[in-house]
Amino acid sequence: AGNLRQAHVGLGMRVLEIGSGGPNAAMLAHLVGPDGEVVTVDIDESVTARTTAGLERLGLSDRVEVITADAGRHLGRGVFDRIMVTVSPWTIPKVWLEQLAPDGVLVVPLQIAPGLQRIIGFRYQDGHLISESTVPGGFVPLQGANRYEPPAVELTGLSGKAVTFRFADQIPDDFAVTDGVLAAEHAEAWSGVIYASRTIWLDLLTWVLIQPGGCAMEAKDPTDRGAEKSFYPAITEAGSFAALAWRPLGDGNELEIGAVGKGPAAGALTTRLAESIQTYGADHRECDPIFEWWPEGATPDLSPSAKTLPRPHGMLTISWPARLRRGRSTLPHIARNL
């Protein structure tokens, strides 16, 4: 599994798995060997019972301790070289860092924004976490004391189906998108950023979701956004929104990324989003973003361009290295269709 590779588990290590199930704990037991130790914890007693039974059948009970508890509280099992989280949290509780050795690795499918996870391999250095690997993936949300439900507004689109706006922190005070806005004519703007079909745009989705007004716009019928070929990241401003969109080019093996939106300011907002996508394509595409977690009390040392996302127990920051380019950018001007 990708997250196991990210953890760099070696012989003799102590490993904590948060979110049990069985197979992952068994693989960890083999990786740490007879001189290592694995502790696996889950809040659900039926899950830990299944894990215990499976480990007994495999003859690995002597290497793995199974605990039923809320991992949001200190387990009292000392310090671990590696912590692997197999449920998706919104934040990184302080107690996890208290149980992680200096220079240890924490692998966690962190919720970067509503609807978007990244499995991040963090290294614990100088009192904070810094990413050294990221891979796509998704896990069930973390339960217990640190469970998080993003605030949301649910509307009804022209199709008669639900359209939901989910925000990372709080619903903006000026949010005024209504069912009537969803029934209005749409505006489009196109960035000139081209992808091969069937490409995963994970970094682009991250870029859009952390823009001012960024949110997950979930539409059961995508045409309620204004275009069938649209996707959930969106930005909002008062009574208008602009969502990610794409259109096929040529024989369909390539597609162009743009924006589709509705509301009184849809023209300006779709142009703004398309320009932001153009900036991403020119300056940061194919550059892995750097994720850092600064626990409460830490003093962040940030680049001027870093995006800060305050969370319970600390702050997540995201920064993009600049893309090395040869020559001048050939991206065209924004194309708008009103």
Task: Give an account of the 3D structure.
With 338 residues, this protein is an alpha+beta fold. 19% of the residues lie in helices and 38% in strands. It contains 7 helices and 18 strands. It has a 10-stranded mixed sheet with strand order 3-2-1-4-5-6-7-15-17-16. An 8-stranded antiparallel sheet has the order 8-9-11-12-13-14-10-18. Strand 8 and strand 9 form a beta hairpin. It is elongated. About 2% of the residues have low confidence.
Overall SS class:
alpha+beta
Largest sheet, described in full?
10 strands, mixed
Secondary-structure element order, as H and E? HEHEHEEHEEEEEHEHEEEEHEEEE
- Strands of the largest sheet, in order across it? 3-2-1-4-5-6-7-15-17-16
Helix content: 10-25%
Instruction: Report the span from N to C terminus.
Output: 46 Å
Q: Please report the total strand number as a whole number.
A: 18
Q: Uncertain runs with pLDDT below 50, 5 residues or more?
A: 326-333
Note the total helix count.
7
Mean pLDDT: 92
Task: Supply Rg.
Answer: 22 Å
By oligomeric state, this entry counts as: single chain
Shape descriptor reads: elongated
Strand content range: 35-45%
